[in-house]
Structures are given as C-alpha cells and as structure tokens.
From TrEMBL:
This is Oxidoreductase alpha (Molybdopterin) subunit. It comes from Microbulbifer donghaiensis. NCBIfam families: Fdhalpha-like (TIGR01701). GO terms for molecular function: 4 iron, 4 sulfur cluster binding; formate dehydrogenase (NAD+) activity; molybdenum ion binding. Keywords: 4Fe-4S, Iron, Iron-sulfur, Metal-binding, Molybdenum, Oxidoreductase.
Length: 773
C-alpha cells in the first residue's frame, strides 16, 4: 500500500512549536493507524501508572499525576506501532526481495506490522512462512556450527525491555561471547565513556525535579522540540520563572525558540506562545569543546581578578579541594589555550562566550543537557569531559537543581546497558553472572557496531541477530555495511515492522515478529508487565493495552528464550520457565544487577523507583575516589586525519539529523514541519552564500560526495539544495538517507561512535536520473 505524501514544498514555518500544529498532526497519525478507537484508549494510557511506557524517547515523567502524558511524537510512535495494517505470508508471496528493495524506508514500514515468522532459506528470492520451533532450530543449527561463539553478534536496539535485555545478554554470555553491539554505540556511547572516567558513573546525575530548581539550563546539540517534546514543558516553566535557558545549536530549532503548550488551555485558546530561551549561540559543528573552554577561560580570569580584589570569585574552591583531582593541570591547559584557537574553532565571538560565562558564573544551580550534536563527533569524549570540568569548577554536580544530563534517545537504551548489554562489560557484572548461574563468562571484550561491520566484512562474524532496530540503515557507510551483512551465513531480525534489514540479509535470513510496547503480552501466568529505565534512572513498569494484531507474534523474552533453549538446552538456565512469569526474570535481575534488590515489590510504587546515582550524591567511583578534571588540548583541527591526508579541501561540513516526522530509520511522513519542508527528504540545507560560492542555485539538485583517505567513492545523488538559515560552511540533511557518506573509520576517539554530525563533503552536479512521480 502506497503511503500518503505531499508535493515537495519549502516554506519557513511561522508558528510556535507544539500547540495546534501538533494537535493536527496527532489527529492525522491517529486516523491513519486504521484503528482509531482502539488507539485513543492506548494514547490515554501512555506513561500512566498501570499503562505502558511511551515507545518513543527516554525523557522521564513529570511527578505530577493526572495529566495527558504523551506528546505529538509519542502519539505518532504509538499509532505507528498499533496499526491495523499487517505484513503476512501472502505479502511475501506477492513481493520478492528484489521488488521490495526498490521501495524506500517510508514505504517499507508503512506496510504494517509483521505478523508471522518468515524464512529465507538461501535458495530463492522470497521469504516463506516457518513455524516458531523450526525457526529456533535453524538458529540453533547455525550457532552450534560456528567455529567459535565470537563468530556471532547479538545487536540490541534501545526499545528492548529490561527483561528482554537481561535474558539476551545472559544467553549471549552463556553461549560464550561478549559480542553485544547496540544502538548506544552510535548514540550516547561517548557520554558513558566520558562520564565513567570523570565521575565514576556513565549516567546523568540529575532527576526530573532538578529542572524546577535550576537557575540555568544549558542545552547543547539537542533538538527537544522534535526528539524529546515532553522536555519543552519544564523548559518553558524554567523561562517563565526567570531561570536562564541557554542554547548552543547551529540551527535555530523552533522548539528552542517558541512553544505553545498543549497543557495550557489559555495559551491554546488565545493562540499564544512562550519564549523558550534566554540566550541562543550558534557554534561551528564540533565547536562546543572550544566554546566550553572559552567559558572556563573567563571563569579563571574572573577568579584571578576577584582574588586580587580580595573578593569571592566564581570558583567553588571548597568543593574542588574536597572532591576533585587534577585541578591544577586543568587550569594550566585552559591558560595555555589561546583565544585565537577558541574563537576559530567554536565559531563564536568572544563577547558571546563572555555572555555565556556570565550566566554560568552567576547561576547557583545549573544543569547541562546534551544529545547527538555533542556525541557524534570525533572528539566527543573530550568534549563531554570538558563540560564535566566546567561543572566541577563551580561544584555543580551532586546538589539539588544542578548536574549533568545526557538526554538519552531510545526509550530504554539506558536500561539495556544497566541490564548488561555491553560489548565491554564491567568485570563485576561477569563475576555476578558467574556466581548466580555457575557458568564461566567470556572475559575478552566483544565487538561494538563499527567492529561488528568490520568483522562481517572480513568474514570473522557469520551470524547476526538483531533484537529490534534497523542495523542495515542506522549504521554508517551503507553500501559497505550492506555487503558486510550479505557475507553472513544467517541474519535474524526480531522486529515489529518491515525494514531494509530484512531485505539486505545473509545467505539465510529469518524475520521473527514480536510484540511491541502497546501490545498485551500474555504468558502462562497471565498478562505481563515489562520494565524500562528513563534518562533520570527511574525504573518503572509498562503494561501493554491492545490486543495484538496476530496470535502468531511472540514477546521478545519468549523469542529469546526460544532461541536459547534450542541452542543451549536447560542445563544452565531453564529459559522457557522464566518467561512463564516475568517476575522470575526480575528475581534474577535482582540477584545480579546492583540497585534492583526487591525489584518486583518496588515496581508497585506509582512512578517506579529511582536507581541511586553515586555521583549525584558526591560519591565518586573513580580510581582515585574523586571526581576528575580530565585535561585535553583542543584538537589541532576539527577535520580529522582521514580528511586532512586528502589534498582536496571540503566545500562544506555536513551534519545528519532527524526530521520532525521520523523516529530514527522509521519515517512517519516525508514532512519536516518546523523546518518548513513538505513532501521530500532528499534535501540539503545550506547557506545561500555557500550555495552561490560553490556555483549552484537555490533548489538545484546536487550530488553529495564525502572525503576520506581511501579509494571508496561515497556519494548520494539528487539532493535538492534549500537556502536555509544555517551558519556558513555548514550543511545539514536527514539520516539515514545520508549514511552512505559516513566512512566506517570515521568515529569518535574512545567511543567508536560514527561521526554523523561532522562529514567533510563536496557538492557536484546531480547525476541522479529524474524521478518519475
Ligand atoms: N520523534 C523522535 N524522537 C526521537 C528520535 C527520533 O528520531 N524521532 N530519536 C531518539 C534517539 S535514538 C535519539 S539519540 C535522540 C536524538 O535527539 P537529538 O540529539 O536532538 O537529535 P538530532 O536530530 O540528531 O539533533 C541533533 C541537534 O544537534 C544540533 N547539532 C548538530 N551538530 C552540532 C554541534 O556540533 N554542536 C551543537 N551545539 N549542536 C549540534 C543539530 O542542529 C540538532 O538540533 O532522540 C530520540 N527521540
Ligand atoms: N547518520 C546518522 N546515523 C545515525 C544517527 C544519526 O544521527 N545520523 N543516529 C544514531 C542513533 S542515535 C541511533 S539510536 C541509531 C538507531 O538505530 P536502531 O535502533 O537500530 O534503529 P531504529 O530506526 O530505531 O529501528 C527501527 C526498527 O526497529 C524495530 N522495532 C520498533 N519497535 C520495536 C520493538 O518494540 N521491538 C523490536 N524487537 N523491534 C522494534 C522496527 O522493525 C523498526 O523498523 O541510529 C544511529 N545512526
Ligand atoms: Mo539514539
């Protein structure tokens, strides 16, 4: 079935974020679900006690009860999952793989929910139906036939529940490998790596309540109006009560400028709106580390001036003395960094940094939030450590209304890590698993996403299992990644919806259709709850509300248990008994994972329970027992080695981002309301000066070619230029269409996260054949 699409148009959007525009969009998603009556009930149960956790982002719930707790994009996610359209055996009989490959990602997912297990047996071009037991037997046969368990990789996308994730990692380790790549490798990995080293925990230190107490909230590299819309309300409240909201973002994102609150009847009726920031800075891509360094430089300067006058300066020297290590070295590196380098790299004026530093110095309580604009760069880990250094200077970690807030992406990506989905597991986790289950865990590090692709390319990984997600499209260097997947002997996708990862497969492939967050999950002991953890480390239960579209779908825990039982039998763990009642899985989690004692009982609290954050209480689990200033020089050049070795200079630096109507590789429509685009995703936002400098015209079609120090040509064809309010030298386009441009070897130091926000590109005349509409 062909999904709806508007004609291509670009008109800058004049209205505030959310408000009536959002309501119209919710109504559209709801009607298009093909089961509006069922879904209205579902939407009202979103994020309510006894209801289900919203399958969209990882933002937490307001402690206040009794409100509507879903946003526009949450409603889209719910209606997209709870659709009446289904993809069954007849669909695959009618459509060969080659035919399906001709369709775009929007079309593929629009076809509906996957309703029965399907098998591509290596001989033809069509999937055929297969029974569940037979499917499990296929997987077991392949896994048992590998020369080593490390020839398999078990990928996780961040929607998997805690129960599913715990079982999955337990199975991988019982089978014998730490090859557990996950979407976090492409997402907030840098945050985890940086914070673990700096403050001894990889998670954010703030809670929802802290936002109401902060005097200033800094938002770096994040677009909450689209990706965390429920965050707009606490930001609006902050501005309204006189707190500072300071944005660092090269684009003027509408949700960070003006907001019409759907929860505010007066504002809706009068069509009013609220300002969303008190200062807005537009740095160069990758320039945030230099910007933060500039703020630190002012803080040290003002401290010296104050000391000369015998006054109190901005530094919290008591906190630094009691809690921190490495202060002197940090002061030196800040002193040594020149203003010339700071201004050139940050792309900001000295007066702008001074203004940001003033706000920083004057705020008693301050929160720093960030997302992909910070984490998807080559030097993301140093940047996040620089942010941490800045907060440590003023004792802004571990007190109410203050702290670090990496705003997570997928609704349970943080929980999946807590449950042990990690290619570099902590030894304590492996010790605890061994003690509880009595088998010995593999101790070598496994592979992350980038290393998985390299290993598949070289034939070292031969079986790929995906617990959700869309590995073929979300990853970098698309044609190369596709060839890597095609070298596998078996690829297995546990999924809710059809996507390209079902079409770009190993020699054999399986589609295992699973229940989603909205579906009622019935097991032997009755309907089950699963649990998730949000960005604020709150763990709570989620109950599916809707009758599943097909009786052939199984829950993620049931599918994992089926695979594990067929592969390993019952000796180590009685997998099938565990899924009869998920309370049994939670009892195991309680035994193994710190902070989950009495798990089943504590879930009964409305709103769930808080996993303590040691750094939030000023306990520093680092090797020195202190919070560490970690000292890095600014990078010599933001262009990384792979590009610098190449003689050609880039025309522009490209970031890849999300439109308002997508969830990662899931495309809800071809529109991007706040950026004014309708009906097209193959667009390239650029500054008009740059467009002319490069010899092109607004609305002309171009090819985008990226630069790297190898002989691979990385090109995407036929993108329409849109003259846009974007700093000179920068360009932006949507992910995943631009993923063929990201070289696999271009990743963050220490994080291995593809540099999706910094791609050196050149523009060429379009070589795309005109598309027939
Ligand atoms: N509706 C919806 N919700 C989502 C998602 C979705 O796709 N759709 N995805 C989920 C996931 S997995 C994630 S990780 C999050 C993603 O949430 P975001 O991180 O907000 O997502 P992006 O669209 O990648 O936006 C990055 C923002 O950073 C800015 N930026 C880019 N480069 C830089 C830079 O160098 N410096 C600065 N200061 N800013 C920069 C961009 O202009 C953009 O505003 O959202 C989650 N929630
Ligand atoms: N260029 C570029 N690349 C990026 C990014 C970027 O900003 N730029 N962002 C990166 C980020 S932050 C992330 S998190 C990754 C995302 O990478 P992934 O998490 O792998 O991708 P998604 O698009 O979220 O996966 C969508 C698919 O998940 C399946 N699915 C949905 N719900 C469920 C469920 O409940 N259970 C199961 N089993 N399956 C389900 C559906 O079949 C759907 O097609 O992409 C990364 N890639
Ligand atoms: Mo993400």
């Amino acid at each position: 079935m062909r999904p709806p699409a508007d004609r291509f148009r670009f008109h800058p959007y004049q209205r505030p974020a959310a408000g009536w525009g959002a309501l119209r969009s919710v109504a559209h998603a709801w009607r298009d679900s093909k089961q509006p009556f069922k879904n209205l009930r579902a939407m009202l149960q979103t994020n309510q006690h006894g209801g289900f956790d919203c399958p969209s982002c990882a933002w937490g719930e307001a402690p206040k009860e009794g409100r509507i707790r879903f946003c526009e994009n949450g409603a889209k996610a719910v209606n997209w999952e709870a659709t009446g359209r289904g993809v069954d055996a007849a669909f695959f009989r009618e459509n060969s793989i080659d035919q399906l490959l001709k369709h775009d990602d929007y079309w593929l997912e629009y076809q509906g929910r996957l309703t029965e297990p399907m098998y591509l047996d290596g001989s033809g071009n069509h999937y055929r139906p297969i029974g569940w037991d037979e499917a499990f037997a296929v997987i077991a046969r392949h896994l048992k036939g590998l020369a080593s368990p490390d020839e398999a990789a078990f990928y996780t996308s961040g929607r998997a529940s805690n129960e599913a994730a715990f079982l999955y990692q337990l199975f991988a380790r019982a089978y014998g490998t730490n090859n557990l790549p996950d979407c976090s490798n492409m997402c907030h990995e840098a945050s985890g790596v940086a914070l673990q080293e700096s403050i001894g925990t990889g998670k954010g230190t703030v809670t929802y309540e802290d936002f109401a107490r902060a005097d200033a909230i800094f938002l770096m590299g994040q677009n909450p109006g689209t990706n965390h819309p429920r965050m707009l309300e606490p930001l609006r409240e902050a501005v309204a009560r006189g707190a500072q909201v300071v944005v660092f973002n090269p684009l003027r994102e509408r949700g960070l400028e003006r907001f019409q609150s759907p929860q505010n009847a007066l504002q809706m009726l009068t069509d009013g709106d609220s300002a969303m920031n008190t200062a807005y800075f537009r740095p160069a891509l990758g320039g945030d580390m230099a910007a933060v360094r500039g703020i630190a430089k002012f803080i040290f300067q003002w401290q010296r001036e104050a000391e000369q006058d015998g006054a109190q300066g901005p530094l919290d020297l008591e906190f630094v003395a009691a809690h921190c290590a490495g202060f002197e070295a940090y002061r030196q590196v800040v002193d040594q960094t020149s203003w010339g380098q700071i201004l050139a790299q940050s792309g900001l004026q000295r007066a702008e940094l001074e203004r940001a530093a003033h706000i920083f110095a004057r705020s008693e309580r301050l929160i720093f939030c960030w997302a992909m604009g910070i984490t998807q760069h080559r030097h993301s880990v140093p940047t996040i450590q620089e942010i941490t250094n800045l907060l440590l200077l003023r004792g802004q970690i571990g007190k109410p209304g203050a702290g670090l807030c990496p705003v997570r992406g997928h609704s349970n990506v943080q929980g999946d890590r807590t449950m042990g989905i990690a290619d570099r597991p902590a030894p304590e986790l492996l010790d605890a698993l061994e003690q509880r289950f009595g088998f010995s865990c593999p101790r070598e590090d496994g592979v992350n996403v980038v290393k998985t692709i390299e290993a598949m390319e070289e034939g070292r990984i031969r079986v790929f299992v995906g617990l959700g997600g869309n590995f073929a499209q979300a990853t970098p260097d698309t044609p190369r990644t596709h060839r890597a997947l095609q070298r596998c002997q078996l690829t297995v996708q546990i999924s809710t919806k059809l996507n390209r990862s079902h079409l770009v497969t190993g020699r054999e492939a399986l589609i295992l259709p699973c229940l989603g967050r909205t579906d009622i999950d019935r097991q032997l002991s009755g309907p089950q709850a699963v649990t998730v953890e949000d960005s604020f480390s709150m763990v709570h239960a989620s109950f599916g509300q809707l009758q599943p579209l097909s009786s052939q779908m199984r829950s993620e825990p049931a599918i994992i248990a089926g695979i594990a039982d067929a592969t390993l039998g019952k000796d180590m763990v009685n997998w099938l008994a565990l899924v009869e009642d998920y309370g049994r899985i939670r009892d195991l989690i309680a035994d193994v994972i710190p902070g989950f004692r009495d798990f089943n009982r504590r879930l009964e609290q409305p709103g769930g329970f808080y996993l303590q954050n040691p750094a939030g209480q000023r306990r520093w689990n680092t090797d020195l027992g202190k919070a560490k200033f970690i000292t890095h020089s600014l990078p010599d050049s933001l262009l990384n080695e792979g590009v610098r070795h190449k003689a050609r200079k880039p025309d522009l630096v490209l970031q890849t981002l999300r439109s308002h109507d997508q969830f990662n590789t899931t495309v809800y429509s071809l529109n991007d309301r706040y950026r004014g685009v309708k009906g097209e995703r193959h667009v390239l936002f650029a500054n008009l000066e740059d467009i002319h400098r490069l010899g092109f015209e607004d609305r002309q079609k171009v090819d985008i070619v990226s630069l790297w120090n190898d002989d691979i040509e990385r090109r995407v064809q036929g993108f329409t230029l849109i003259a846009f309010d974007i700093p000179e030298g920068q360009a932006a386009t949507y992910y995943p269409e631009a993923n063929p441009l990201v070289p696999l070897e271009s990743y963050g130091i220490g994080s291995y996260t593809p540099t999706s926000k910094f791609i050196a590109i050149r523009l060429e005349q379009s070589t795309a054949p005109e598309r027939i509409v």
